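Translate structure to sequence.
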């Protein structure tokens, strides 16, 4: 004989079925959420695996462009230095440079010298100081 306080009610088949349905809905919901989380994680990992090489490729292309520009500048400097070397190895060049710096000329040779940008500015300033404003004409 059972004590009245500990009396346990036996669920009906319908109640048991409802409990099973609730549990299965909860499990199905958890499976759906778990599947979505799994897909998101797979998408993140896949994007990291795919986008990292693309980013590295872009960075390497930028570095290559910079290196090519430096190479072009170095080749231009090399060509200029080589040309200067060729000029300096020419005795006529040395003679011409020495005459230019000393403002000397050979017989029958005339020196025509262009003023530098600074000399041009000074000449313009002096000319503007010497100019006097024009007097207005009188109209009668």
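Result:
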């Amino acid at each position: 004989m059972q004590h009245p306080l500990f009396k346990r009610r036996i669920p009906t088949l319908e109640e048991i079925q409802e409990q099973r349905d609730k549990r299965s809905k909860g499990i199905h919901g958890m499976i759906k959420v778990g599947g979505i989380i799994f897909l998101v994680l797979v998408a993140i990992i896949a994007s990291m695996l795919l986008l990292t090489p693309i980013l590295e490729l872009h960075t390497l292309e930028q570095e290559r462009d910079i290196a090519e520009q430096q190479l072009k500048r170095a080749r231009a400097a090399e060509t200029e230095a080589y040309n200067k070397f060729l000029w300096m190895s020419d005795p006529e060049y040395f003679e011409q440079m020495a005459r230019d710096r000393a403002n000397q000329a050979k017989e029958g040779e005339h020196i025509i010298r262009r003023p530098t940008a600074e000399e041009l500015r000074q000449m313009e300033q002096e000319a503007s100081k010497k100019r006097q404003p024009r007097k207005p004409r009188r109209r009668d």
